[in-house]
Amino acid sequence: MKPVFSLYLIALTLGMAHATTVSALTFEEQVKKADVILHVRIVDVKTIQSKNYPWQQYTLSVKETLKGNANVLPQVQDVPSFNVLGGDTWTLEGAPTFRKDEEWVVFLYKTPYDSPVVGFNQGMYRIQDGRVLGVDSLNLKNNELPTFKTAIREKL
Fold first, then answer.
1. Does the keyword Signal apply (predicted)?
2. What is the pTM for the complete model shown?
3. Could you tell me if residue 41 is left (phi over 0), alpha (psi between -120 and 50 degrees) or otherwise beta?
4. Distance between CA 116 and CA 94 in Å, rounded?
5. Which of these, 43, 54, 22, lies nearest to 123 by C-alpha position?
6. DSSP code for 101
């Protein structure tokens, strides 16, 4: 009887561990899954309360829309934004964080989730000095932003 119970417990544990695993998405999968892809600057970051939980609210200045329509995102005073579960007092482990005045290309779901970033943080690319950080696997020449945007458009 004990071995059967142990095997059941192991199977149950492995099943739960598998359920919490986030699969790595290819660049093409990120583009396809995103409802909206935007080149943005973060203009405001604040903690709000919604449904009894704190959320980090990121208000955006849209520099360019690469896919979809930014108006499907939550609006703060007619400006697109998105919310990530967590706030000043606690954060969701692994949740994306952004800072005011940072520039990003973000791949977003329009449906509110704990994190609206495609692939739980896979669809976020920091822009610094006209270059895209974290895209070495795409083999872009010098990781230049225009080349990255072209790669996105080619996958649409």
1. yes
2. 0.83
3. beta
4. 13
5. 22
6. T
Query: Please, are residues 86 and 56 in contact by the beta-carbon 8 Å criterion?
Result: yes
How many other C-beta atoms lie within 10 A of the C-beta of residue 30? 20
Rg of the chain in Å (alpha carbons): 18
In order along its 156 residues, the chain shows pLDDT tens digits of 444 444 444 444 444 444 456 688 999 999 999 999 999 999 999 999 988 889 999 999 999 999 999 999 999 999 999 999 998 777 778 889 999 999 999 999 998 778 999 998 899 999 999 999 978 767 777 789 999 999 999 999
Q: Which two tokens stand for residue 113?
A: 């989730």
The two structure tokens encoding residue 26: 């290819």
Domains and CATH numbers, the chain: 24-155 (2.40.50)
